Automatic annotation (TrEMBL):
Protein name: Phosphoribosylformylglycinamidine cyclo-ligase
Transmembrane portions of the chain: none
Intracellular or extracellular location(s): Cytoplasm
Domain PurM-like N-terminal, residue spans: 54-162
Keyword Lipid biosynthesis among record annotations: no
Underlying gene: purM
Amino acid sequence: MTNAYAAAGVDIAAATRAKELMAAAVRATHGPAVLAGMGAFGGCFDLGAAGVAGSGILVASTDGVGTKTLVATALGRYASVGQDLVNHCVNDILVQGATPLFFLDYVAAARLAPEQVAAIVGGVAAACQAVGCALLGGETAEMPDVYAPDGFDLAGTIVGIVSREAMLPRPNIAPGDLVLALPSSGLHTNGYSLARKIVAQSGMSYHDRPASLEGLSIGEALLAIHRCYLPEVQALRAAVTLKGLAHITGGGVYDNLPRALPAHLGATLTHGSWAIPPICTYLVEQGDLKEQEAYHALNMGLGMLAIIAPDEAPAALAACPEARVVGAIREGAGVALV
């Protein structure tokens, strides 16, 4: 359990236990058309196995932006969280090899402010347009007894498609394969309950500009938009044979990289082989976070991880110059940082 994160109101272990308790009920609904369900970044549904003419695997994912909404409210900046939402969901289905088809959003608040909702949905639409994804519709809900007076919630569902032969991860991931990292732009959409608590306890405000944040205010650094890795992944797939991808979101690298690996394999990552965003370093120092806590609650600069064969590293780095070789696959489960 991440002690500091739990003290901030988020218990990762409790979330894991809840998933374990619901797993049997969820799996009871699965037929032969379900290729990946609970535990995968995106659920996979085989249209052919469901008797639908044509071919292809639908990949769907639902997510939200967490308490990043509270930072957006404090600063009165709403469009960026709409972009965060879409980009997060696109990245989740990329991990299965899929490209986006369409998106639906859900905005709920104690009181719907038209301008605020328009800004949020405008951000959703802009991000959808950037990746060629249709925004089919969604839902807005006003629930005064559920949300705090100035609070709002934001969630969305994405559906994409991939051919069976292009699905990830591939079954031939092996010891010695390399782990490439595509850098994050900041916290993305995870760790905000912890981040907000650390900022509050530091006595600083979102408008303060610590020197370590290189000219940004704390609020600006926290609202940095969650990167979409579709262009980079497309470039990598055109240059090399990707074996697997892991989107580093809630649970950090410890929980997310193993989701892309066979049960008997793990990974060793090397400190200093990638850049840690200043906002992550700031939070680690201000919150006095231990390494296990930091890499469990935050992405620590590891936005998307890709697994490739060692001999394909030169081609991968040429196709995506900002990528870094940060580690390797090994026998034995789990992630080690050395």
